[in-house]
Amino acid sequence: MKEISRILLTAAVLVFCLAGCRVIRVEEGNKQDLEYEVVQEEALPREIKELIQQKKENEFQMVYQNEEFLYLIKGYGRQMTGGYSIRIEELSVSETAVFFSTRLMGPSQEEKKSSEPSYPYIVVKISYREEPVQFQ
Fold it and tell me: In this structure, are strands 85-93 and 32-33 parallel, antiparallel, or unpaired?
């Protein structure tokens, strides 16, 4: 009898835990390019600056929102020198998600590399959207 009670209790807990979960199916489908603005450091909200400072040592990606905008933030962690840039490969939306893809570009041979480490990141501002963001 105790064995049956234990099995029923385990099944009930499992059902309750799974009831709050849902699967979001992200399909690329038909995508449309989004208008965006690359935000310079001096124009960033204070909260974003603080988050970047906390996470800059390692690669990171995050979304920050306010009433009007979504800020898509991608950092590439500590690099041994300066001179890096970040290229936006894609920023688009489908019916189910926003897609954001970037690429870290190394310093060119002509550029004078600083001996100081750098922490390249990019912040892109778009109009507020409900769809989840997929960093690629």
Answer: antiparallel
